[in-house]
Design goal:
about 0% strand; elongated; single chain; 6 helices
Amino acid sequence: MSHFLAAVGIYGALAYSVAQRTRELGIRLAMGSTPEDVFRLVVSQGFKVIGLGLVLGVVTALGVTGLLQSLLFGIQSTDIRVMTAVAVTLGVVGLVACVVPARRATKVDLVSALTYQ
């Protein structure tokens, strides 16, 4: 269940970020950027955020192992397999969460993006 909530949160944050930048992305497309350039821009910026979140999450998890040990049953608080599985799962979710808004950004209607709203 928590993976689902993380997926929804990551997707929501990235989709909102792309939606806020619709005008900028429309201008980039109007000035000659290709849809592939815009796609790469959105995905690379999303990966930077996701990578930073994964690194901070692992460091924080390792930092609070003493507190977590009393809450865990059947595994060690520093179990590499569990941390790797969680990081990989959230990384894949992050990839999907980046690709969907990035594909949407490549299909921005230039007229509606450039008109004042």
